[in-house]
Specification:
This protein is an alpha+beta fold and 185 residues long. Helix content is 25%, strand content 34%.
Length: 185
């Protein structure tokens, strides 16, 4: 992410997004700092699609909620606007489709890019949970692992031999990591 080094609000973020030269760019706002998201690689996109497709195939027939890709942003307050790679919001928490989400997703998925730092990932994790996210999957393509956060203190690292599950957020959801990372092979 490119840090634009500016204390900002969601109004400042919207003004930046509205500039013609930023038409094809995406930005997040974390603790008043605007970050430009890097263009995802083909591998990043492939992993996002496997995760989103698997989640959609589980959620949709059960009428549990909705699954969104990275164009769905979450305006959490005046200084926080996050765009997870994949997200899930239950019908229980968000029965309708608003013009803009103002609550955090039940599940957020972040696929780590080479440009992401450990501090950025940590800050995003803390932000998601501070605003009500109940489950966060952080996918590391380089190591073929997924770090599952059920709270800032409850962390579990999964490897290729493990299966990703939906925990209390999506009971019954299962995705073997070997299937997810088959895109890398």
């Amino acid at each position: 992410m490119l840090n634009l080094e500016k204390t900002a609000t969601t109004n400042d973020l919207q003004a930046l997004v509205d500039l013609p030269e930023n038409r094809d760019k995406m930005f997040e706002l974390i603790a008043g700092v605007i970050y430009e998201l890097t263009t995802p690689t083909p591998l990043h996109n492939a992993l996002v699609m496997v995760l989103a497709g698997s989640l959609f195939s589980f959620v949709q027939p059960r009428k549990l909620g909705r699954v969104f890709l990275s164009r769905a942003g979450y305006e959490l307050d005046e200084q926080h606007f996050l765009i997870p790679d994949v997200s899930y919001l239950s019908f229980e928490r968000q029965p309708d489709l608003p013009a803009q989400f103002t609550i955090a997703p039940d599940l957020a998925v972040e696929v780590v890019s080479p440009s992401n730092t450990a501090d950025e990932i940590q800050t995003k994790m803390l932000t998601y949970f501070a605003f009500g996210t109940r489950l966060l999957w952080v996918v590391y393509p380089a190591t073929r692992t997924v770090v599952v956060h059920t709270s800032p203190q409850q962390i579990r690292t999964l490897t290729l031999q493990d299966t990703l599950d939906g925990g209390d957020v999506l009971p019954g959801f299962m995705l073997p990591l070997s299937g997810l990372f088959a895109e890398i092979a």
